[in-house]
Specification:
The complex is a heterodimer of chains A (307) and B (223). Chain A is α/β, with parallel strands linked by helices and 307 residues long. Chain A has eleven helices and eight strands. Classes of the chains: A alpha/beta (307), B alpha/beta (223). The complex binds iron/sulfur cluster (2 copies).
Chain lengths: 307, 223
């Protein structure tokens, strides 16, 4: 074991992992975090705590992660490169681990231009690949990026993101290889809607032996409405929503669109369970945490393994 | 070259409002090429200021003078005999030129008439684009001659990020994704190995004022 993560134990034991997501509030509302945490307890193995997502200021991800721990969840502490330099990052990583956080996800972060402080200075002192490598060096060599020794290194399970759909498609698997070489223990992908492309990407990852070196969790997002699907298709950079998904949602009976969204998500999860090279699913039910028990139930991923 | 943009007229007017005798100092190199601070622009600014101050019943005595380069002592000398007649200098050079002027004449307020914007290229008349952030550690050899520090909105060394959008950057469909371009160019050159390697964290050297002394030269002793 590289870390003390429950997710690592589950994956090592060969179980199909199922993880969730929780966005911290735009304020110091701890109760809000607890509310969102409730439906996730017992239904997911780990919950991603987003870090100023879409470049909007929110409660710090480490703080919301600690509240999640109090509620009985295992958090995945997300950290973006946009908001802090290497000193702040390493300090936060040590603090997070000291207080019981065992997993982290290393991300570039959406450009500050998208958020509520568009004229902020984007830090990007290091990039997400370099962050992965920094955490690995801290953990495995017990050294800071600057080379000095760490008194009690953080034994974190290191995650990174991958987008199988961005152009050029040919490059995607090589970029994955680079992240794995940099030290990513697990990968959570961008929301998958285009299953055809996903199958091809995974096939290439398997062929390159990457799935032997890292655990890939496929990102699944249930669509709540036709509007959401169209928005994601046209407005969200890096998202690939095929027309047939939109058509299926449009074809749903009145009042049953969200149900169709969940249906599609469950079919995907079903297929991922069988797909060689996929070690689990990361469910991003955006502002839909209360639906997670139902989705987990319908996707037949319950009960969650106890390790 | 260094590209600058003239400050809004109102801001310039405000900067010099307390002064009665102003020397407008142009620079004949980069800022002249980018049509911001050369001889012609000095004349235009002088005329505008003159008219505006007359309208306000607060006339100002103006003189324009453009030298080859404000970032070079050799040329700055030309101002030595002139500055005594003025109570402020309004410089249209880049930030470096303005500072060199201010350093030479510390007794007189030296004010900027331009915003220094970037190191860039001339894409067409009046059209300039940024290309370099002078990071002190050029990686163009590995990135197909496309600067990841400048051209990628996040300055990524191991791009692209997940937001790359059909060849464009996540920030705008008018902004090409630097890492998409880097990939395309290296692929055509058969040099993709340059970016399959992990690039470690950079040593940022542009955090303190930098000095360059070419081999064979040395800094003169302090007097
Ligand atoms: S890497 Fe980019 S910023 Fe750095 S010197 Fe080269 S062109 Fe300039
Ligand atoms: S989309 Fe491309 S250019 Fe824009 S931030 Fe990401 S990697 Fe950089």
């Amino acid at each position: 074991m590289k870390s003390e993560s429950k997710l690592e134990k589950i994956l090592e034991a060969g179980h199909f992992a199922f993880t969730g997501e929780l966005g911290p509030p735009r304020g110091a509302n701890a109760e809000h975090v607890r509310e969102k945490a409730k439906p996730l307890i017992g239904n997911v193995d780990m919950v991603n705590i987003t870090d100023n997502q879409t470049a909007m200021v929110r409660m710090a991800s480490w703080a919301a992660a600690l509240i999640a721990i109090e509620e009985g969840l295992e958090p995945n502490y997300q950290m973006v490169c946009r908001d802090r330099n290497r000193l702040a990052m390493q300090a936060d990583i040590l603090g997070a681990y000291a207080l019981g956080i065992k997993n982290m996800l290393c991300l570039s972060g959406d450009h500050q231009k998208f958020g509520d402080h568009p004229t902020a200075k984007g830090v990007f002192d290091i990039d997400s690949m370099q962050l992965v490598n920094m955490v690995k060096t801290m953990r495995d060599e017990g050294k800071f990026l600057g080379g000095a020794d760490i008194d009690i290194p953080p034994k974190l399970f290191i995650g990174a993101a991958a987008n199988p759909f961005a152009e050029p498609f040919e490059w995607r698997v090589h970029r994955l290889a680079k992240k794995v070489a940099a030290g990513a223990d697990f990968i959570q992908t961008q929301c998958v809607f285009n299953m055809k492309k996903m199958r091809e990407w995974i096939r290439r990852a398997v062929d390159m032996g990457l799935t032997e070196k890292t655990y890939i969790l496929a990102g699944v997002t249930p669509m709540k409405s036709v509007g959401m699907a169209k928005y994601m298709a046209s407005k969200v950079p890096g998202m690939d929503v095929p027309d047939e998904v939109i058509k299926r949602l449009q074809g749903a009976e009145k009042g049953k669109v969200a149900d169709m969204g969940i249906e599609i998500a469950c079919e995907q999860i079903q297929e991922f369970k069988e797909m060689k090279g996929v070690a689990g699913v990361h469910l991003m039910a955006i502002e839909w945490e209360h639906k997670v028990p139902e989705i987990a139930e319908r996707a037949k991923v319950l009960p969650r393994p106890v390790v | 070259m260094i590209v600058a943009e003239r400050k809004p007229f109102e801001e310039i007017k405000e900067l010099v409002k307390a002064y009665k005798k102003v020397l407008v100092a142009g620079c004949g190199t980069c800022v002249a090429v980018c049509l911001t601070g050369g001889e012609k622009e000095v004349d235009i600014l002088k005329t505008e200021l003159d008219m505006a101050r007359r309208m306000e019943n607060n006339p100002v005595e103006l003189r324009g003078h453009t030298i080859e380069r404000q970032c070079d002592r050799e040329y700055l000398e030309a101002f030595d005999s002139m500055v005594g007649d003025f109570d402020a200098i309004l410089s249209m050079a880049c930030g470096a030129g303005i500072q060199f002027l201010a350093e030479r004449f510390p007794q007189i307020p030296v004010l900027p008439a331009v915003n220094t914007t970037f190191i860039g290229v001339n894409q067409g008349i009046g059209w300039y684009e940024e290309r370099c952030r002078s990071c002190s550690n050029c990686v163009l050899g590995d990135t197909g001659g496309i600067c990841p520090v400048t051209m990628c909105a996040k300055g990524l060394y191991n791009g692209p990020c997940g937001g790359t959008n059909k060849g464009n950057c996540e920030i705008s469909s008018d902004q090409p994704c630097a890492w998409f371009m880097i990939y395309e160019r290296l692929e055509k050159q058969g040099r993709l190995d340059c970016i399959t390697r992990f690039t470690p964290a950079q040593n940022w050297e542009n955090q303190v004022p930098r000095t360059l002394i070419q081999p064979g030269y040395k800094k003169p002793e302090k007097q």
